[in-house]
């Protein structure tokens, strides 16, 4: 999809599952590589995309985005659900390039806007979002769909 100075950004495939599982583990998400490979395949069948940033070695970054119709807008909205850059690769523009590639994918999917959900304690992410053109519009609540026992 995008290539710059040895960095390639393209659709993530099951072959990157091991490296992506390691990257996600550094952010506190323990996902088995085989399960992750299946999830990456499933994302290709959904109104979604997973883009990976690759340099020389394991994945440097990942962005996962879904899009959906809303009542308040004529065009679908894209939502970034995962944006992650490895600790040693931060501050090199990789996150910015992942967001740019995600925005292009959202435009191709016919989306009119893109959003990213931010945990309340993620001030660095907030600064990054403002620097990459996002406007703060509030917060969200989540609820499990499984019975709480």
Automatic annotation (TrEMBL):
Record-level Gene Ontology MF annotations: acyltransferase activity
Keywords: Acyltransferase, Transferase
Gene3D superfamilies given in the database record: 3.40.630.30
Assigned EC number: 2.3.-.-
Residue span, N-acetyltransferase domain: 7-149
UniProt xrefs under InterPro entries: Acyl_CoA_acyltransferase (IPR016181), Bact_Acetyltransf (IPR050832), GNAT_dom (IPR000182)
SUPFAM superfamilies per record: Acyl-CoA N-acyltransferases (Nat)
A Pfam family: Acetyltransf_1
Name used for this protein in its record: GNAT family N-acetyltransferase
Organism: Teichococcus globiformis
